Amino acid sequence: MTAYAALTGHFSRIAAMSNAIGILQWDSDTMMPRGAAGSRADSLALLRVLAHDMAVDPRVGDWLGAAEQEDGLGDWERANLREIRRVWTVETALPADLVEASSKAISASEMAWRQARADADFPALLPYLAEVLKLQREAGAAKGATLGLSVYDALLNDYEPGGSAARIDALFDDLAAFLPGFAEEAIAAQQRRPAPVPMEGPFPVEAQRRLGMRVMAALGYDFERGRLDISTHPFCGGADNDVRITTRYDEADFGKALMGVIHETGHALYEQGRPAAYMGQPVGQARGMSLHESQSLIMEMQACRSPEFLAFAAPLMRETFGGSGPGWEAEALWRRYTRVERGFIRVDADEVTYPAHVILRYRLEKALIADEMPLAELPAAWNAGMQELLGITPPNDRLGCLQDIHWPSGGWGYFPTYTLGAMTAAQLFDAACRAEPDVLPGIARGDFAPLVGWLRTHVHAQGSRYATDELLTRATGRPLDAGVFKAHLARRYLGAA
User: Fold this and answer.
1) Which of 170-177's residues contact partners 24+ apart within 8 Å by CB, and which partners?
2) Virtual CA dihedral for 378, 393, 252, 118, nearest 10 degrees?
3) Confidence at residue 201, expressed as pLDDT on a 0 to 100 scale
4) What is the pLDDT, as a whole number, of residue 198?
5) Torsion of CA 431, 436, 440, 442, to 10 degrees
6) 226 contacts 243 by C-beta, under 8 angstroms
7) Looking at the chain, which residues constitute the CATH 1.10.1370.30 domain(s)?
């Protein structure tokens, strides 16, 4: 057996372990009875330590050194070696006891968050979140020492390989200067148009579920390799070839769940479209979270808030809920789904105000990781930031700093990828429409094959073969350019050419 073959066999076993962890985690977030939380936390911690032990097996370093000298390896194999070395370098920086402690702290914090969010009670979450934050700092310091990165950049690297706070600061400072004035212009422009006609509920959950599944099918989701469920916070998870998504329902407004389903389906299409030949290898994984978020936002924001999609969806909505009247026409739905409005909840935000939610979280998590702000001050700092960036103050912590699961679940360094993803989505969608003239006409027919086919070729099937900037340049002809995102907003919300 060659060293390369030994490596791929070993990492296939690690992937199998990760798949088991993914399904147990999905169950924890959807169906697990609360009384099982303790034993589930122990099981997940053990599996994560075992996966970590496999990744840092001393043989991996030896195999890597030998495999990198082998002749006859192709581009994919060389890229796989690069990704294996990246994973191995990060994993060897972490001691097993830190992996175990972090896993248990996250499990406890997630359970505490669900109750604290329901009760709008940040103090109830505080001790659990403080433990997660402490361990995240330790992990970031350990990784940073090995990689030569700051603590924050080392955490960011888990979600955005090669990313840096310095680059994000420049992009986000530019957006923070641009968006408040643009939002004012967009709100003024929409006030000159007729307001959306109210749609009378209730909208039963089962009917919402049927509509969501019809739209998922139209987008190209493979129900033979996944399922739709309910969770406190929508997500996409599961395992290789078992890509599960969740949403949450509001019987007064079916649009929230529908757009949540569309968003998570975008993630799922990426997972279901990864290269089958390398599914269990690091090179076969999704490249990073800015690309992952671009795939969800291409569907939710670029495609499914377009006039073309709403022309297709309006009859489905009327049929599902028995709706009639002007509020159910495609034009009225377009005004509803492109309405700019300052709100408290990130996942319900329009695409003009959404980046402000992300910039706030990014600035706060950087300060918390750097220990520049006590965690107990998070609610006050959050409210002040919302007032500064959006001109509104949450009335309670459920609508403020308790709304997202990311920090309780250990996702420190994740948030900036949402807005990086929005910019990437605009650039990829623009390129797809230029390359495939049938993208928008297809969406109007409920045929997403032209769009998904282009994404399969240029993003999904590439796995982690290329670095993010290289993949984006290959697909669109240039690295990330915020100007494309701004131009998209101007066209949609101001009618600019």
Assistant:
1) 171/419, 171/420, 171/423, 171/480, 171/482, 172/355, 172/359, 172/362, 172/416, 172/419, 174/482, 175/355, 175/359, 175/419, 175/482, 176/356, 176/359, 176/389
2) 30
3) 86
4) 82
5) -150
6) yes
7) 165-218+283-494
Annotated active-site residue in 83, 91, 160, 264 = 264
Q: Compute the average pLDDT of residues 8-31.
A: 97
Nearest to 333 by CA among 342, 321, 344, 343: 321
Q: Tell the residue number behind the tokens 């290959």, with chain if given.
A: 474
**For residue 497, is pLDDT > 70?**
no
Read off the tokens for 71. Answer: 């002749």
For residue 5 the two structure tokens come to 């073959």
Architecture of the 165-218+283-494 domain: Orthogonal Bundle (1.10)
- Of the candidates 254, 253, 257, 212, the one whose C-alpha atom is nearest the C-alpha of residue 234 is 257
CA–CA separation, 132 and 112 (whole Å): 12
> CA-CA distance, 431 to 424, in Å (whole number)?
11
Q: Mapped to the 3 state alphabet, what secondary structure does 85-138 carry?
A: HHHHHHHHCCCHHHHHHHHHHHHHHHHHHHHHHHHCCHHHHHHHHHHHHHHHHH
* 308 known member of a binding site: no
Ligand-binding annotation for 293, yes or no, is: yes
The arithmetic mean of pLDDT across residues 477-489, rounded, is: 95
Give φ, ψ of 221 to 5 degrees: -65, 135
- How many helices, marked H, and strands, marked E, lie in the chain? 20, 3
Tokens of 267: 């993630």
pLDDT in tens, 159-217: 999 999 999 999 999 999 999 899 999 999 998 888 888 888 899 999 999 999 999 99
Question: How far, in whole angstroms, is CA 318 from its chain's centroid?
Answer: 30
**From CA 94, how far away is CA 214, in angstroms rounded?**
44
Beta strand 242-247 with 236-239: parallel, antiparallel or unpaired? antiparallel
pLDDT over 70 (residue 496)? no
End-to-end CA distance of the chain: 60
* Stated length of the chain: 497
pLDDT in tens, 322-334: 999 999 999 999 9
Mark whether 251 is an active-site residue: no
The 3-state DSSP class for residue 464 equals: coil
Task: Yes or no: say if 299 and 266 are a contact pair by the CB < 8 Å rule.
Answer: yes
Average pLDDT over residues 241-247: 97
Question: Mean pLDDT over residues 64-88, rounded?
Answer: 97
CA 153 distance to own-chain centroid: 18
